[in-house]
Design brief:
364 residues, 6-stranded parallel beta sheet, 7-stranded parallel beta sheet
Length: 364
């Protein structure tokens, strides 16, 4: 069975990492062969995970940017004629499924990961994209219930497919964890550093932890970050007198990131926009409490997992800081057990995704 999976670029983003984990699982189980899978990189750009994907044995195809990119993609589909087209382009997925429709691709799956209503020019695009999404996708899967509402997806085409993670406990040397040093409160943020991660607000929160509550801390930021953005954020840390308490580690592989996570007292997620943040799942899975924005995806995670505290971005940094102080005193019981029984386990996600592909093909 030939499957084409589209991605923007193979960086260290959630889409690329989750897709990699799912493929590894299905290959190990013998459910799929690497020769069945083609990763189509829409941007045409090289990424840090290119070699990792290539080492799996899958084929990488680099698209073309700009106005002619869609035509290049359409011609590619005509040549390859896959049975399944799985598009990771959020609400613009219908544009690529339209190409699949014209190319005669039988199974066209759009994968929605954002639950935020777009504003400005993006809202106009959204209003154009939604009819195409529902007209040319044979199935729409989404990482949260809110994706269906935002995508206006009819029930007969909808499948709730929570993002999932392989058990991070298998990657950690010491599940007991501990402070990053003898006395400082260890706070960690994990994810590509971009505007929606709201790191500026996180710095203000941490400043309140130190200045308002007289609690030493260390904030560790793990994730890809541009040099200019890193310098800007460090200048802000200087202005808040916390520059010696903040460290940027850059992008780490998952094993190293999880071992850093478990060294800390809590995870901080101040994002203004997320789909279903896998790092919150991973944090609960290893018993590290998390204080997170009350976004729809985070709300759904908190239904199943323990040790997650939701806060609104409309609240002041000192209110978040107060919650951090209180949460750092709490021992999270049975958090790992709640993860292992949840729908966020990789095997559950992978088998359900395979059902989507196979069912539409008439094999399940």
């Amino acid at each position: 069975m030939a499957i084409v999976i589209t991605v923007g670029k193979l960086g260290f983003g959630g889409v690329e990492i989750r897709t990699l984990e799912v493929l590894k699982y299905l290959f190990d189980k013998g459910e799929l062969s690497p020769s069945d899978v083609i990763i189509y990189i829409v941007s045409g750009l090289k990424g840090r995970l290119d070699s990792t994907y290539s080492d799996l044995g899958v084929r990488l195809v680099y698209g073309r940017p700009g106005a002619l990119g869609w035509l290049y993609f359409f011609r590619f589909l005509l040549r390859v004629k896959p049975i399944v087209l799985h598009v990771n382009a959020s609400y613009a997925s219908g544009i690529y499924c339209f190409a699949g429709f014209l190319a005669g691709i039988k199974v066209r799956v759009s994968h929605l990961r954002s639950s935020d209503f777009p504003e400005g020019v993006n809202r106009a695009k959204y209003l154009l994209y939604i009819p195409m999404l529902n007209a040319f996708s044979t199935m729409v899967v989404g990482v949260s219930e809110s994706c269906q509402k935002l995508g206006r997806v009819p029930d007969q085409k909808w499948c709730l497919l929570y993002d999932a993670v392989s058990d991070p406990g298998d990657l950690i040397d010491n599940l007991i964890g501990g402070d990053v040093d003898n006395c400082a409160l260890g706070i960690v943020m994990i994810g590509r550093v971009e505007s929606c991660k709201n790191v500026d607000f996180a710095l203000e929160v941490c400043s309140s932890v130190k200045m308002g509550f007289q609690r030493p801390f260390r904030l560790t930021v793990i994730g890809e970050v541009g040099e200019a953005e890193k310098n800007r954020l460090m200048n802000k840390a200087v202005s808040l007198s916390i520059d010696k308490d903040v460290v940027f580690l850059g992008a780490l592989d998952r094993s190293k990131a999880m071992n850093e996570l478990v060294k800390n007292d809590l995870l901080l997620l101040t994002s203004s926009r997320e789909g279903l943040p896998g790092v919150v799942i991973e944090s609960s899975a290893v018993g590290v409490p998390a204080i997170v924005s009350d976004l729809p995806g985070c709300l759904e995670i908190a239904r199943y997992l323990k040790g997650i505290k939701l806060k609104s971005l409309s609240q002041q940094p000192d209110e978040w800081a107060q919650e951090i102080i209180e949460l750092s005193k709490v021992k999270v019981d049975d958090a790992r057990e709640s993860f292992l029984k949840s729908p966020f386990v990789l095997s559950v996600h992978a088998e359900k995704l395979l059902d989507v592909w196979m069912f539409a093909e008439g094999k399940r």
